[in-house]
């Protein structure tokens, strides 16, 4: 599930005119170039990221998405705190990359100019950069409330920081933070098993439902789920099955090529998203794809 937004609620500084690349201070998932590229966001091919700190700020997981079907936890933000530092990297984006990032960062983020201090030396000159930060709540979209990041999201930060060569103390700080663990779908629930087996769908039916939206169906790990038609069309990817697209978001592991050969991390994250979709208000399991037994071999006894 990839979320794309066509308008911003937060304040966005104008993108500088011309073809010049724009520096952005990344402290969260965007520290990982692999994560950016996996989401189709163009980055500079000529400039290496620069390690830096945002002074007098702290990292907070206080972005709580609202009414989101594929929920994994809270997302990262920065807020003022005298004497604190947030470590990250400066990544350069072409204008097209910054516009693409705007659509994927969520409408409640501001994109503003600020200054960061490079790691190089204590006397290094500050760099003027852009930063995504949420400064207010937007009811119905995203609210400011402290919470736990999901395991995938936090591991993306840890891996991005490690690969960027940020200070070991910062990486250890990230590793020490609490997070929401992956969830396992409860197939001991007899209602779920009955719903799973009530009907077999084809991949074409799933894709067609994204156009007709009557009903609106998605499938993941072979499970077909009805979602409320109030969801924005742009929130859904038109895939035969969301399994591979969701697993790809575990950007710190090699991109999956086979939905039946996911790593433990990828399967854990995909399973968590299945749990989130199934319990979303108004959602319910409608049936299965023909391949469901390959995902859930222990359920073959019920077929």
Notable features of this structure?
single chain, 303 residues, alpha+beta, Hypothetical upf0131 protein ytfp, 2 domains, six-stranded antiparallel beta sheet, three-stranded antiparallel beta sheet, 9 strands, 27% helix, disordered N terminus
Helices and strands in order, then pairings?
Blueprint: E1 22-26, H1 33-38, E2 50-65, E3 75-93, H2 95-104, E4 110-118, E5 127-133, E6 142-144, H3 151-164, H4 168-176, H5 190-196, H6 203-212, E7 216-220, E8 223-227, H7 243-247, H8 264-279, E9 284-288, H9 292-295
Antiparallel strand pairs: 1-3, 2-3, 2-4, 2-6, 4-5, 7-8, 8-9
Helix pairs in contact: 3-4
For the record, the CATH class of the largest domain is Alpha Beta
Q: Under CATH, the topology of the largest domain is which?
A: Hypothetical upf0131 protein ytfp
Q: Helical segment tally?
A: 9
Helix content: 25-40%
Mean pLDDT: 86
Structure commentary:
The chain has 303 residues and is of the alpha+beta class. It folds into two domains: 22-176, Hypothetical upf0131 protein ytfp, CATH 3.10.490.10; 190-302. It contains nine helices and nine strands. Strands 1, 2, 3, 4, 5 and 6 form a six-stranded antiparallel β-sheet that branches. The chain has a three-stranded antiparallel β-sheet with strand order 7-8-9. Strand 7 (216-220) and strand 8 (223-227) form a beta hairpin. It is elongated.
Care to give the gist of this entry?
By secondary structure, the protein is of the alpha+beta class. 27% of the residues lie in helices and 24% in strands.
